[in-house]
Design a protein that fits this description.
single chain, Glutamine Phosphoribosylpyrophosphate, subunit 1, domain 1, eight-stranded mixed β-sheet, five-stranded mixed β-sheet, 20% strand, globular, binds glycine
């Protein structure tokens, strides 16, 4: 199941405070691919590694004159519509009750407006619903049943998003649960007993998501930037759980004076570090996109303190990937651990390249 293979997994192991301190002080050096991105100038669309079709579509639309906000939302719709991709939209993996709940946000640089939906059920294109919130309301975020009614009122079609394939994966998880879930007992809150860590290690938790950002940077000063993040969120989540993707400043953020940023992976870690906002602010202060992503990856690692979230070396036992697009077309990405990738489309075509990992394998 390739779509699961390329996602972030919750890993487990024993803990050691000394090893933790040592591991935290040894990030890997930035690799060559992001530095190449930092040097790029001109129109550009960037996405998480599952978004090559999205960047192709969005880049073509931007070159044809579309507003980048419409382009990136149309781009990710290709992935939302694909039932074979279990990370978003139709075919996304469900919550612990077998219900697919989608989160998405979108932000338009020129107006500094944002729209988002969370815990949306029964409508596959959460990013388009978020864009409708942006364009048709004075609000930033609509959730749950209200989000669904809002979408239906604008003509979005209601359907069952749980495909037979996703149902099979969910049923396999449900048949093997017990301690393999997101509920914590008193003795599991901080000390991470071996029993819980071993249990979580034996099953896949996924945070599949697509982020996409675009700039029409023909002229750096006049460039407009927009971005979107859309997801079915953490698989097997507690119903109603909302991740970072619809949180403006966490899983997605745009400032038209600077650029855009987004994240995939463990949303809780991105929310408590205001990931997207932090990356944009670091770029504003002079860091390149890849430097800013790596700095926020470091910040997330340094602030992961619960033992149940650390591996034997004291590193986070989850992955987060971070993406940044500066308004002039420079781009970069970083992840906590190897495995993260980004898709990029420029005038030279599209490709998927690795994010720079903070920690070596
Ligand atoms: N980053 C996606 C989520 O945590 O829901």
């Amino acid at each position: 199941m390739t779509h699961l293979d390329r996602r972030s997994f919750v890993l487990a192991a024993g803990a050691s405070a000394l090893a933790a301190a040592a591991a935290r002080s040894q990030p890997t050096a930035p690799g060559p691919a992001p530095a190449e991105g930092d040097a790029h100038r001109g129109p550009c669309v960037l996405a998480s590694g599952n978004g090559q079709r999205a960047v192709d579509k969005a880049f073509a639309m931007i070159r044809a004159g579309s507003d980048p906000v419409d382009a990136v939302v149309e781009g990710v719709a290709i992935v939302e519509d694909d039932p074979a991709d279990m990370s978003v939209g139709l075919g996304g993996l469900p919550n612990e009750e077998g219900v697919v709940q989608l989160d998405a946000s979108v932000m338009h640089g020129p107006t500094h407006k944002a729209g988002a939906v969370a815990a949306l059920e029964g409508v596959r294109n959460a990013a388009k619903v978020a864009l409708t919130v942006l364009k048709r309301t004075d609000h930033c975020l609509i959730v749950g049943a209200g989000a669904k009614r809002f979408a239906l009122s604008y003509g979005f079609v209601e359907e069952n998003l749980l495909t037979p394939e996703a149902r099979e994966v969910w049923l396999r998880w449900r048949a093997n649960r017990s301690t393999q879930d997101d509920w914590l007992n008193d003795d599991e809150m901080d000390f991470a007993p071996e029993r819980q860590r071993q249990a979580r290690a034996s099953i896949e938790f996924t945070y599949g998501t697509i982020h996409c950002a675009g700039t029409n940077a023909a002229d750096g000063a006049a460039a407009n930037v927009s971005a979107v993040t859309t997801t079915s969120g953490l698989s097997w989540k507690i119903p109603g759980r909302v991740g970072d993707s619809p949180i403006i400043g966490a899983g997605m953020y745009v400032d038209n004076d600077v650029g855009a940023a987004g994240a995939t992976g463990r949303g809780e870690a991105v929310i408590v570090n205001c990931g997207g906002f932090a990356i944009v602010e670091l770029m504003r202060s002079g860091m390149t996109p890849s430097q800013a992503c790596l700095a926020v990856a470091r910040r997330i690692a340094d602030r992961t303190r619960e033992k149940r979230l650390l591996d034997a070396s004291g590193r986070p036992n989850f992955n987060v990937s971070l993406y940044a697009l500066r308004k002039d077309g420079a781009y970069g990405g970083a992840s906590l651990h190897p495995g993260g990738s980004l898709a990029v489309c420029t005038a030279h075509g599209s490709r998927v390249i690795p994010c720079t990992p903070l920690f070596s394998a």
